[in-house]
Every structure is written in C-alpha cells, then in structure tokens.
Amino acid sequence: MKMETRYGSSPEMIRHFSTEQLRDEFLVEKLFVPGEVLLTYTHNDRMIFGGVTPTNETLEIRLSTELGVDYFLERRELGVINIGGPGSIIINGTEEPMKKQDGYYIGKETKQVQFKSDDASNPAKFYCVSVPAHKIYPNVKISIDNITPMETGESTTLNKRKIYQYIHPNVCESCQLQMGYTILAEGSSWNTMPCHTHERRMETYLYFDMDPDTKVFHFMGKPDETKHLVMGNEQATISPSWSIHTGVGTADYTFIWAMCGENITYGDMDMVAMDDLK
Fold first, then answer.
1. Which UniProt keywords apply (predicted)?
2. DSSP structure class, residue 57
3. Which residues are annotated as a binding site?
4. What residue spans define the domains of the chain?
5. Which of 16, 82, 162, 189 has the most CB atoms in a 10 Å sphere around its CB?
6. Which CATH number among 3.10.50.40, 2.60.120.10, 3.40.50.300, 1.10.150.130 corresponds to the domain 2-276?
7. Band of the pLDDT at 222, cuts 50, 70, 90?
8. Residue 109 CA to its chain's centroid (Å)
9. In the sheet where 113-117 sits, what is the strand order?
10. What distance in Å separates the CA atoms of residue 144 and residue 52, rounded to the nearest whole number?
11. Closest to 71 (Cα-Cα) out of 113, 35, 131
12. 196-197 and 270-271: which strand pairing?
C-alpha cells in the first residue's frame, strides 16, 4: 500500500506556478494499479482518496500509525464506488457483491474492510474516499439502479447531465462526506457549468470511462484568475474550497465527485457569474 501526502496551497501561492508545479500540487495521475492500494492524503479537510484494485488476492486499506489510531476507520467514515469489473466488499467478515456503479457508505468504527475481484483479468476498481467522522452511522450499500438522478443543464449550453447522489442526506446519513456520480448526456461536454465555489467545503474529482485519446480540461483557481489541468482517464484532482471546479472534455466522460467540510447541504454553492470569470 502506498499513500502520498499533499499539503494545502493558497491562491497566492499558486499564482506563478508552472504547469508541472500545478500538476504536482493538485493532480493525481495514477490511482488504479492491479494488485495495489494507492491513496492520497490531502490536508484540505484531511480527506484520503484513491484506488483499490484487487486481482488474485484480497486487499485491505491498512492505516494506523499514519493516522495515530489503532485501525483505519477508528475515527473516520468511508465511501466506495466500484468503477471496474465485478467484485465484492467484505465488511467485518460479511461479503457483499459489488458490480460496476455499486457504492457503499461505511461508518466510523468499522474495523475491517476488504476488497475482492471476481476475475483478476477484469479487476474491480474501488474508488475510496475517507474523511474524519464524529458519530457512527449505519453501513449502507448503494446501487445506481435505486437512485433517482437529478437532471440539470441544457443541450444548448453543452452541460446537460444526470447527477446520482450516493452518499447524501437523500440516500443515507453521514457525518460530513458526500459522494456522487455524474454522467453527461450525449452531445454535452461541460460539467458543473455555470461554475461555483463553496468556501465551506473542498472537493475531489475523478474522471473516468474515457478513451485513451480523450482529454478533460479541468479548470480551477480563483474566479478572476483561472488555471487549468489537462487530465486523462482515471485521473483525479483536488479542488480547494477557494477554487472553482469545472471542466470540458474532448469526448464522452464520467466523473465522481466527493466533498467534505463545514456542512452537508448539497446546494451550498457560491455561484460565479460568467462575466466574473477571467
């Protein structure tokens, strides 16, 4: 298991960053490696996120001394969405199947979480996001088949999309983690546009289901001083609370968003007028 630590940066700090400096600070280029657990710890609200890709052996996230606890979820909650082949998740000895697009909320003080793939040649790819928690909430399996998506955007502005809220008050309780899956309509290419910030929460984006030649231009930074990252399939980015987060792709793509912070109100956004973007 590997975990990289990223420290928080202010907007003033990144003002003169080169492209490589910006990528080193905010982009995670590799999350899913067969047989490995790859995690990133961002000091933005102390979120841990990354990929678990089991093949022939069961994998487990083992973090104790790194977090000053006896076991990983002693003081944390965890969200999981499978974006790969069929597999299963084993929670305190109980195994549950996890096909692609199945999710799970796993609450504080869950002592053992293990991950398996049904077929090593087509492994499950478990995207995992964990944040600090103060209360125990029940573990809940979440299937995209049981979620009524929120439809937003317009074809005329190339941002028509369906938002599937997995870990959200409409679906299950959590301390501060929110997590969901957004699928763009055919012919649409913009996500989260018009863009916004939310000073009370940070966010991560995982882009996936992309062809090798497809790229997403992910825009970030202060509204009046924007920057961008060019991202490929199964790459993720850290979005601090002070930053906008929006993107446009050269072809079809899907993304998972995950948020944590001061509150759990999905609509807590500070919208940015088009004329204010620079």
1. Isomerase, Metal-binding, Zinc
2. S
3. 196, 198, 203, 245
4. 2-276
5. 82
6. 2.60.120.10
7. very high
8. 22
9. 59-60, 113-117, 87-91, 94-98
10. 20
11. 113
12. antiparallel
